[in-house]
Amino acid sequence: MTKKIFIITIITIAMILGNCDEKKMGNKEIVGTFLGSVLKNDPATMRKLANSDYIQHNPYIPTGLEPFIKMLPILQENGTKAENIRMFEDGTFVFMHNIWKNAKPFGADEMVSFDIIRLDENGKVAEHWDAMTPVVTKTASGRTQTDGPTKVEDRDKTESNKALAKSIIEDVLMGKNPNKIVDYISAEQYHQHNPGIKDGLNGIQEAVKYLISQNNMFKYTKIHKILGEGNFVLTVSEGEWNGKQQAFYDLFRFSNGKAVEHWDIIQEIPTKGLKNDNGMFGF
Fold it and tell me: Is the pLDDT of residue 14 over 50?
């Protein structure tokens, strides 16, 4: 698919809605149209594209399509908009990297998210997972939480890159064999988008040293899902940080068998104020 930056607004969605037949659209187009209809508060299109028993894993949104639809006026009242930076596809899953503006309903004026949508065997939107964090304007690397390449390359290496991402999480972040970090991460180029970590292997090592000194190192305990398309792989993991349970979303870009770029979102798993009991995982 040619490179696209989807700006999910009423204007763009109006151009593709109408008499469109979702069976003729690819998974990415279905998901883009569905998310656009969410922001437009267009229940008719949402009902056309999604199942009535739409399963929600955002802990603050009720599960089911109709309860979700009842919340949409809040987004319109706040003028909430989304800009899709990256969109990838892995089987029946579409996973995205988004920026949300006027996003007070989600916790801050501007938020970054990873969103995952599962489509069922009929091409209907069936399930949603996400993790969100406020935008940070000043970062250790000077990079933003979303900038960098978006083009999918090396689709024939999708499975090998997914295996590499799994090894990074298990060996490095779960501590099974941390010395193998040099086997997985490029020493020549490693662009870091975590706001608190500098570029390169040295940046990772410096951050780890500091966190250990504070007795506050990330603890990854379980990988729940690995999704990839070509040179991009997203891992969804569970663990602990700051003494609380966390959802860890890590997006890696690979080149020549090593990770050369990393984006992430860490979101605390809430225990109060829950709108559904599906949990943040359950893949």
Answer: no
